[in-house]
Amino acid sequence: DGGITQSPKYLFRKEGQNVTLSCEQNLNHDAMYWYRQDPGQGLRLIYYSQIVNDFQKGDIAEGYSVSREKKESFPLTVTSAQKNPTAFYLCASSIYRLNQPQHFGDGTRLSIL
Amino acid sequence: QKEVEQDPGPLSVPEGAIVSLNCTYSNSAFQYFMWYRQYSRKGPELLMYTYSSGNKEDGRFTAQVDKSSKYISLFIRDSQPSDSATYLCATWMDSSYKLIFGSGTRLLVRP
Lengths: 113, 111
Known about the structure:
Helices cover 0% and strands 50% of the residues of chain A. Chain A is mainly β.
């Protein structure tokens, strides 16, 4: 079955630590996205990538970094510069054409120790 | 003013009721609209995708867009307890890859 796999499901971060969230898709989608979801705020775009080796900042990129070395993979690193990292992180992908709906993974919940 | 507004709920209805979920948006350039369903601790799942004005039906779900009043709706007929979830509306402008989401409405269908 095609889909988007996010791991781990739960992650804990210590102060001053960088952590990396994994996102893998086997839908053969070109475009991939990272969102942050906080209670009552909907989804906010962190980074997106339309093709391999290229990515753009979204609305709340500060304190985060990404890479896109393979079409199937778009890992997100939450750095120590992100002062409020506790949230639900969602990865999505879509066909690289305008107005194509995005499909989501089941998320990673990140908490501070 | 947020670009897409949604009442957060919760909306509580008895099983079998017709549910109406709504969003308003501010930018008349928005043309494509989607509804996602999100169960607790899960990712959003695409339910409906519509373009411009009019209705689209899929089983018990009907999506309606009224561009003149910048209002989009999702109707659920014969609601079931399994419909209990958060419903998110989303849109983006033509020529943009960025999705804009409402904050979601939490629905509870009581058995």
